[in-house]
Amino acid sequence: MEKVISVKNISLDYKERDIFKKIKGSNGSTGVENISFDVKEGDIFSIIGLNGAGKTSTLKCILGLMKPDKGEIEVFGKKELKGMDFEKVGYLPEISYYPKSIKLIDLMRYYGELYNIPKGELDKKIEVILRKLGLISRKGDRLEKFSKGMLQKVGIAQAILNNPKLLFLDEPMSGLDPLARELVIEIILELKSKGTTIFFNTHILEDVASISDRVAIIDKGRLVEVLDMKKVMLEQDDFLLKDHFIKTVGEK
Question: Per residue in 73-113, pLDDT tens?
Fold first, then answer.
């Protein structure tokens, strides 16, 4: 299969911004260090790690939202995404910020315009997605009335509105109840069945084990290993990702 994402030896340092800490000699900290992996077309590729391990920094480097200090990244065979390339990409950030006074339908139409979805198709697409996520009855409501879990669903709705070829999900299950989590997993698997490549960060090991093709374990900014889940499950009937994760991260 074709490589959709190629990450080669990227490193990123967080520069110290506090002038007083600089005076004391602090130069910052390491975000990620010498990370390499590939993501194949149509795969679900997951990154797991503890808080602060470098998951979100890695994702933002791939998207071009942060620039690594070293290394190379290619997405769709390009070193930099531009213009219409982003119409093929969906992105749910770890924390989504929306104007609280805006109505859900207006927010979705705004994202539809950003994706250049034809006006004649947009409202139909919005209705299908909102219905799928159980938000159709709330499309006329302002976001100030939405719970955290509902806002997370809104974020997922905008991320998949353009039927992306490449979907980035940063902690997609955050704030969701068990039923909503199952729904999101169903949506992810449905997108995969249609050929979407999915890259997501999470700390929920059960979700990773159940749907991922490959899993990258990151600890303290370093790539510990990349697991082929199908191969692992075939070779080790008693394999438990949780136990393996704890052991692997603990050893580092």
Answer: 999 999 988 888 999 999 999 888 899 999 999 999 999 99
- Residue-wise pLDDT for 197-242, tens only, equals 999 998 778 778 778 999 999 988 899 999 888 777 665 655 667 6
Q: Is the pLDDT of residue 141 over 80?
A: yes
Q: In what order do the strands lie in the sheet with 28-40?
A: 28-40, 3-15, 70-75
Radius of gyration of the chain (CA): 19
Of 238, 221, 91, nearest to 160 by C-alpha is 91
Strand 166-170 and strand 89-92: the pairing is parallel
Alpha-carbon distance 55 to 201, whole Å? Answer: 6
CA distance 208 to 216: 10
Catalogue the E-assigned strands of the chain: 3-15, 28-40, 44-48, 70-75, 89-92, 166-170, 197-202, 214-219, 222-228
> How high is the pLDDT of residue 239?
60
Nearest to 192 by CA among 200, 201, 203: 200
First to last CA, the chain: 32
Q: What domains appear along the chain, each with residue ranges and CATH number?
A: 3-251 (3.40.50.300)
What's the rounded Cα separation, in Å, for the pair 111 and 163?
A: 12
